[in-house]
Amino acid sequence: MLPALALRLRVRVLLALLAAAAVCLLATPAVRKFACKIGAMDMPGESRRVHDHPIPRLGGLALFAGFLAGVLPFTGIDEPVQGILLGSVIIVVTGAVDDLVSLRPWVKLVLQIIAAIVAIRHGVVIRILTNPGDASAEAIALGALSVPVTLLWIVGMTNALNLIDGLDGLAAGVCGIGCASMLAVSLFLPQATEISVLVAALGGACLGFLPFNINPAKIFMGDSGSLLLGYVLSTAS
């Protein structure tokens, strides 16, 4: 990549990260009040819950606002990015409804599959597998297995982030670390310029959300947040 292009990319990445962090930081208190007003509260009592008082959720709305603030002004909306954004809308709406009324698991799964198919139809597809531990190993072309492998990867990762969201700051912290790792790699790949901005925006949103989510948490991200983090990480990777 030419030095001038590399410099412009790094500026865009930095601006995307800062914009996402700032918007999420400012939006989270408003989302917290909104969640309290409509009764989107995480109640204590179940075995896996350790908090002793109701805590508002729907923090994913603030994460999504920060993510969009970092992506839309600073990246070109090519076809794969468009697919990721459209799928993200489906995922956030699914999670938000679940945070309010507790959707049946199969309904959430079907909607996650639809979101994954949206990304796949826009070109987000795993076509080859490589062995990162052996640079001399020959890449494996997936061929007809590309779509089912991609579908399994996206839905699996989406739910993996959802499952680890059980401790204050855990999901946002893990996602932030993942975004930092992917950003470090993507900055050296000329074909991954838009992905650099995408993961920077997601990582920035996590940074803006963490002050309200670390122990003791003032708000939970809910399924609207954890599903979003898993979906974007899986599709961006």
Can you walk through the features of this model?
With 237 residues, the chain is mainly α. 68% of the residues lie in helices and 3% in strands. It has eight helices and four strands, in the order H-E-E-H-H-H-E-E-H-H-H-H. The protein has helices at 3-38, 60-71, 79-101, 105-121, 146-164, 170-186, 193-213, 222-236, and strands at residues 41-42, 55-56, 128-129, 140-141. The strands form two sheets. The chain has a two-stranded antiparallel ribbon. Strands 3-4 form a two-stranded antiparallel ribbon. The longest helix has 36 residues, at 3-38. The radius of gyration is 18 Å and the shape is globular. The two termini are 20 Å apart. The mean pLDDT is 89.
List key phrases describing it:
mainly alpha; two-stranded antiparallel ribbon
Describe how the helices and strands are arranged.
Elements: H1 3-38, E1 41-42, E2 55-56, H2 60-71, H3 79-101, H4 105-121, E3 128-129, E4 140-141, H5 146-164, H6 170-186, H7 193-213, H8 222-236
Antiparallel strand pairs: 1-2, 3-4
Helix pairs in contact: 1-2, 1-7, 2-7, 2-8, 3-4, 3-8, 4-5, 5-8, 6-7, 6-8, 7-8
